[in-house]
Amino acid sequence: METLADKLNSYENNYWDFTEYREKKVLIKYPAMMVAPMQEQLLQDILQYDPYITNILDPFVGSGTALVAGAKLGLDVYGIDINPLAILISRVRLEGVPIEDIRESIAQLKTYITLFLGNTNPIEFTNIQKWFRKDVISDLSTIKRAIQHENNIQIRRYFWVCFADTVRKYSNTRSTTFKLHVKEQEKIKTMDNDCIQYFINRVSALYVDYVKRNDDTNISLYTGDSIDILTSFNDSSIDLICTSPPYGDNHTTVTYGQYSILPLLWIDLDDLDYFDKTLLEKFTAIDRMSIGGRYNTDKSDIDIEYKDLIAGISDQKAKKVISFIYDYCRAFAEMARVLKSGKRMVLTLGNRRVDNKEFPFDILNDRLAQKYGLREEAMITRNIQGKRMPSKVSHIPNLGSVKSMSKEYVKIYKKL
Ligand SMILES: C[S@@+](CC[C@H](N)C(=O)[O-])C[C@H]1O[C@@H](n2cnc3c(N)ncnc32)[C@H](O)[C@@H]1O
């Protein structure tokens, strides 16, 4: 009988690259987003080999791509992310918007914006003038006030996600990096401000995966550190894990927290799931709490061979990689514990470069899999096309820009 590995290998060359896929019609872009149709195809194939899957967990859910694919196949979904904006986006994508009310709500929203324009108190927060031009602050404040007048929470959350996208686009931060970095003054001065029209267009486009959801499946989303949150899950309670974990570059390249902080300072926090508000006090706080963000690691607590994986990396940089390995090992142990025997863990992984040396994250995962009784069943190597990654990453003296990852590995492990 054909195995899952045979099936996945039977597609034509480069099938898994999904070269034709473009992210134009996504609700909002999120750093390192998965390729949606690729995940959907993969889950469909897995379900063909195991029709008894009833739930799916993504412990690093981001904007929810893997869970949306799972929910479309009728699975109960569990998602965790340290970033409150990620959970908001995932919730909106998974819960959808109610078809019977949405058009009317959009019409009302436009009326409120017209009504409030020019007579709304501007929002204030520390350094707001650094990150937004005065006229933009005034318009965004108007939009915020109009959104607050929407009564339906599901629709309001949808509006907040479109607003988050607008806030980032019209802020003074550069669009070429996920890090917060102010544009040149000349560019700020000459930037067109059509943020109200842009926001209305985003809202009206209805780029949602569900306009009305079928309510048979359960959606469970948690804001927080998956290492902690997973401890509340029972042993062997999950049928399928599908995730793309962070690669440990949350302070340098893929700064999910810095990417999200400006929208989070604008959105009404009462409409988000509960989270520790001190995360908003510093721009780096979310990234610091993320996997690999804490540097006070006791190396002796890492009980897996890793020294060969960081050979050749300078001591200073190695410290960060070790703290990443330390956190990731704990997260992996929890993922392995909650997964049922005979069930699969699907990890989309990249090997980033540190000190211009590849850090073989795929090998670390193989070792962890072996330690926790999982066997590699199949692997897909794909060229990264639509993944939101800056093409150039760090600047190293004398070497110029270093190309970022161009390949990723989808590892499918099965728990014995
Ligand atoms: C590669 S992204 C996931 C992207 C997602 N697959 C998508 O399609 O949008 C990794 C995510 O892990 C989250 N993360 C990092 N450390 C975490 C932790 N300790 N607990 C929970 N989430 C964490 C980041 O905030 C980020 O959203």
Structure notes:
Helix 4 packs across helix 8 (153-169), helix 5 (99-116) runs antiparallel to helix 10 (195-205) and helix 14 packs across helix 15 (361-371). It is built from 15 helices and 11 strands. The longest helix is centred in the C-terminal third of the chain and has 24 residues, at 315-338. By secondary structure, it is α/β, with parallel strands linked by helices. It folds into 2 domains: 4-96 and 209-250 and 290-415, Vaccinia Virus protein VP39 (Rossmann fold, 3-Layer(aba) Sandwich), CATH 3.40.50; 99-205, no CATH class. Strand 1 (55-58), helix 3 and strand 2 form a beta-alpha-beta unit. It has helices spanning 4-9, 36-49, 65-72, 84-95, 99-116, 128-131, 134-148, 153-169, 185-190, 195-205, 226-229, 256-266, 285-289, 315-338, 361-371, and strands spanning 55-58, 76-81, 219-223, 238-243, 339-349, 353-354, 357-358, 374-383, 392-396, 400-403, 407-415.
Q: What descriptive keywords fit this protein?
A:
416 residues; alpha/beta; 2 domains; 4-stranded mixed sheet; Rossmann fold; 3-stranded parallel sheet
List the helices and strands and how they pair.
Blueprint: H1 4-9, H2 36-49, E1 55-58, H3 65-72, E2 76-81, H4 84-95, H5 99-116, H6 128-131, H7 134-148, H8 153-169, H9 185-190, H10 195-205, E3 219-223, H11 226-229, E4 238-243, H12 256-266, H13 285-289, H14 315-338, E5 339-349, E6 353-354, E7 357-358, H15 361-371, E8 374-383, E9 392-396, E10 400-403, E11 407-415
Parallel strand pairs: 1-2, 2-3, 4-5
Antiparallel strand pairs: 5-11, 6-7, 8-11, 9-10
Helix pairs in contact: 2-3, 4-8, 5-7, 5-10, 7-8, 8-10, 8-12, 14-15
